[in-house]
Structures are given as structure tokens and as C-alpha cells.
Amino acid sequence: MDQRAADALHVEILPGTEVMRDTDAVHFAHARGADGAVLVPHPSTSSDDPLNWSLLWKLTVAISLLLYTWVLVTAALSLAPIFPLLAMEFRLNQTQVGLLTGVNILTLGFFTIVVVPLSNIFGRRPISIISGVFVVLTCIWGAVATSHTSLLAARACNGIAAATSEVIMVQVVADMFFLHERGFWMGAYFTMYFCGSFLGPIMSGNIGAAHGWRSFFWLSTALSAFVTLLIIFTFPETRYFHRQLPQSATPTLPSLEKTLSGREKGVDSPRAVSDTDSERGNGATLPFLVGKGRPARAQFNAYQRMDSRWKQYLVHGLLNPVKVFCNPIVFWAGLMLAGPADVLLIFNLDESALFGAPPYGWNPSQVGYANFAFFVGGLVGVATGGPLSDYIAKRLTLRNNGVREAEFRLPALIPFALITIILHVVGAVGTQNQWPWPAILVCGYGFSGLSVTTVPTIAIAYAIDCFKPISGEIMIVATILKNTVSFLSSVRFSNSH
Questions:
Q1: CA atoms within 13 A on the CB side of 148
Q2: Three-state DSSP state, 404
Q3: How many Å separate Cα 304 from the centre of its chain?
Q4: CA–CA gap between residue 196 and residue 209 (Å, rounded)
Q5: C-alpha distances in Å from residue 121, one per residue of 227, 250, 297, 308, 471
Q6: Of 193 and 137, which is predicted with more confidence?
Q7: Rounded to 5 degrees, what angle do the CA atoms 214, 97, 102 make?
Q8: Which end of the chain is more exposed for a tag (fewer CB within 10 A), N or C?
């Protein structure tokens, strides 16, 4: 938050605190949207700034990346219904079959440590394209594998290639959307991410039963090639370089009168002083560009300008996650992602053994259809989690005299925490005692899909509100926690069977 705003409103500067209204002292420092909402972060005076892009361009980029995320996760985490086919093909025990998912999860999580600094140095677009190409190659490798060792190596490499699905979308949301919009888009991201675990098994179970397990890898190859081409044509670079405002040109409260009269003109600093600053404070006639901009041609280049601070990014990218890991807010947000995701994985790994045996006796295709319960719960989650947290934060901000605290998102967690408790009880007791399948699917699988798309959405959005500059590192910590716990759970599950 700007120091002048804090002084004017007598607000203590804490991570995530933002002034969402104008006062006489800070009126010049706030850009507003068409609906009158204060825009945080402040947009720049450039039409190619992702914050200024039109709604059509933002939707195009967001939808392309959401599809990209879904396909990469689908290719990585959808093998559970075809475990019996793989076990029969390669004569595998339950532990060996489980490692095909466990190794993928482990590499998927830990390689994010490399993806974030690379995306900061070279850009989101080049890293996403390269990753997409390698996902295609690893899917082909899996389709032609002739041994368990070869397939296991293909799965490990697929996790490395698909690591962009864990962090890129979160960085792009922070690049392209304003504070009051992030809740919805974080919810959309987590929904599409986990839809890979929801709908992917339905696809793998049906295609595996009809055409063999290799057909699923060929389908994954085709889908990965499609989304890679899609982002080549529809995903411009969202990493944006901003000029900094020299300290001597930064308006202060004593110099505010001269600034407003136009007797002092500062150098544009898009994130410190907005377009509206320049228009109101410096007497300039710069147009208000929010919602009217579009990407520049250079933002579609396959190779983006390398950040001159690449050494700093590389060192910090490798060391910062360790520091960030010790931050209580970030660690807590990571646990809020790891917990629901781990329960979902247990359901996913257990579905073939549970529903394929008496008293259910389902075939792989029917087991795959059980994942529709996750999907329906996820759709309810995306429609409620992010929008509810945005709404509650907005209402509490108005009640707090226009000063927004990051913690205003947290009350939205209460109903979803209760649902999470219910799904744990039903999931444990229902599967152990072989309850009727509707109870397990609705209160177990369905509530799990709802929990995994709402609890992480609110928790991660809260952490990013607090520490937006390290949004990538936040997702690294959250992903490593999630995938480490999931790997250990998959190994323990395999050994127990």
C-alpha cells in the first residue's frame, strides 16, 4: 500500500493492506474501473500492459491457459482406472502400479522450483510452449513403452514437462487481473487443474476398456499437441517490464499541491502512479486505457527479452522457496491445498480397488464414470468459492472505511471447512464399511471435488493478496507440499494393498 494513503487514513502498512477508495489526500493515486472500483495494482499508461488489455484478450488468454492446464494434468494424473490393464500387461504388483502415478506427482511438484525462475527470466510464453512440446514427446514415449521401467521413466519425465501447469496460470492471474478479480480466476484455475483428475479418469477408463491402455496415451498426445498450438497463437507474453519512478519525482503529501497544479511533472511509473495519476496530477491528457489495450506484436514472439536481472532471479528462485516455506501464511496456504488434494488422490487411487470388487463389481468404464461426482462438485466449487470470497472481502472493505485487508477473504472458508469435515468422515467410514455407492459418490467424491476447488482457491488467493510479488514462490511451496504428501500417500496406499 502507498505510504501517503496509509498516512492519510492512519492505517498501518501490513502485507495485503490496500486502500480501495479515494480521499482528498490520496485521490490522485487511484485508477478506477468502469464500475468505479479502485484498481489495484495500478495500470500503466501503455496499451500493451496486460492489466490494460481488453476483456476479450484477457478471456482468450485465460481460457487458453485453463485448457492447457487441464490437458497437462489429464495426461499426468488419469491412470487409476487402467491400473488393472497395466498390471496385466507388465505383470506388476500394486506398488509398481502405484509408482506410475507417484513418481509423476513427485517430479511434477519439485520441478516447479525451476519453472518459476525460468518464467521470470525468459517469460511465461516461451516456457509454456517448450513445456507443451515436451509433454507431447513424453506422451508418445508412454504410448510406445514396452516395459515397466520405460513407462516409469516416461511418467517421471512427463511430470517434469507438465510442471508449468502448477504455477504459470497463477503468475498470469497476478500479471493480468486486478485484486478484486483474482478470486474468481483462482477458482477457475483450481477447477480446471483438478478437472484433470476428475474427467481424465473417465476418459482413460472408457478408452482403455474399449481400445487398450495405449490408446489413452495417444489421446493425451493429440490433446497436448492441440493445446500447445493453441497457446502459440493465443497466449502473448504477460510478463511486463515497468519503468520505476525516480525518488526525486515521487509525489509526497507536502508536494501534493504543486503536483496537482501541474507545476511538477514526474516520470511515469505504472505500478506506483497510474494513468489516472498522470491525467489528474500532471495535467497530461493521457487516455484511460484499462479495458481498451491489446498485446503488442513483440509479445507474441517465441523468444522474449531476457530479464537483465536473470542472475538475481535464478539465485532467488532457488533460495526464496526455502525462505517462503517458513512464512506461516504461505505454509498454511500450502497445507490448505495439500489436504483436500491428498484426499482426492486417495479416492482416485482407491476407486478401482473399491468399485471393481464386490459388492459393486464395476468394470473400468463404470469406475471411470464415478469421477463425474468430482466434476459436479468442482463446478459447484468454482461457482461459489472465488466469487464468495471476493464478495465477502468487498463487503468487509466497505464496512472498514474502504481499507481492504487480505484477511477479509478468510470468512468465506467457514462453510467449505464444514463440508471438508463431512467428506473425511463419509470417505473413511463409507468406504471401509462399503456403504451404498450413492452415499460415497455424493458425500465423499462430490464433496471432495467441492472442497478441492474452494479451500485452496481462497487460501492461495489470500496468500497472494499478502505477497503478490512472490506469487510464483507461493505456488512452489504449495505444490511441493501437495505433491510430496500425495506421493507419500500413493506409496503407502500401494503398500497397504
A1: 19
A2: strand
A3: 23
A4: 19
A5: 23, 28, 20, 8, 15
A6: 137
A7: 105
A8: C
Left if phi > 0, otherwise alpha if psi is -120 to 50, otherwise beta: which for 76?
A: alpha
Confidence at 367, pLDDT banded by 50, 70, 90: confident
Q: For residue 421, what are the contacts with CB-CB under 8 A and spacing of at least 6?
A: none
How far, in Å, CA of 407 to CA of 396, rounded? Answer: 10
Q: Which three cell numbers stand for residue 32?
A: 478506477
Contact by Cβ (8 Å): 344, 194: yes
Amino acid at 250: T
Dist CA 220 CA 172 (whole Å): 24
- How far, in Å, CA of 457 to CA of 459, rounded? 6
178: left (phi over 0), alpha (psi -120 to 50) or beta: beta
Instruction: Catalogue the long-range contacts made by 189-192 (C-beta closer than 8 Å, 24 or more residues apart).
Output: 189/66, 189/69, 190/381, 190/382, 190/452, 190/453, 190/456, 190/457, 190/460, 191/378, 191/379, 191/381, 191/382, 191/453, 192/66, 192/67, 192/69, 192/70
pLDDT band at residue 19 using 50, 70 and 90 as cut-offs:
low
SS3 269: coil
Q: CB count, 10 Å around CB of 306?
A: 12
DSSP 78: -
Q: At what angle do helices 124-144 and 112-122 cross, to 10 degrees?
A: 140
Residue 275: pLDDT band with limits 50, 70, 90: very low
In which band, very low, low, confident or very high, does the pLDDT at 20 lie, cut at 50, 70 and 90?
A: low
Question: What ranges do the domains of the chain cover?
Answer: 50-240+308-496
CA 101-137-133 angle, to 5 degrees, is: 110
Amino acid at 188: A
Q: How far apart are CA 284 and CA 278, in angstroms?
A: 6
Question: How far, in Å, CA of 413 to CA of 417, rounded?
Answer: 6
- 223: cell is 490433446
d(CA 54, CA 52): 6
Cα separation, 139 vs 154, whole angstroms: 8
- Rounded average pLDDT over 400-424: 89
The identity of residue 395, as a single letter, is R
In one-letter notation, the amino acid at residue 10 is H
- C-alpha to C-alpha distance for 281 and 321, rounded to whole angstroms: 40
Instruction: Give the predicted TM-score (pTM) of the model.
Output: 0.74
Distance CA 351, CA 143 (A): 23
d(CA 305, CA 443): 50
Cα-only R_g, the chain: 24
Between 484 and 274, where is the model more confident? 484
CB 157 within 8 A of CB 138: yes
Q: Find out whether the peptide bond into 41 is cis, omega within 30 degrees of 0.
A: yes
CATH of domain 50-240+308-496: 1.20.1250.20
Q: Is 24 helix (H, G, I), strand (E, B) or coil?
A: coil
pLDDT of residue 188: 86
**Distance (Å, rounded) from C-alpha 477 to C-alpha 479?**
6
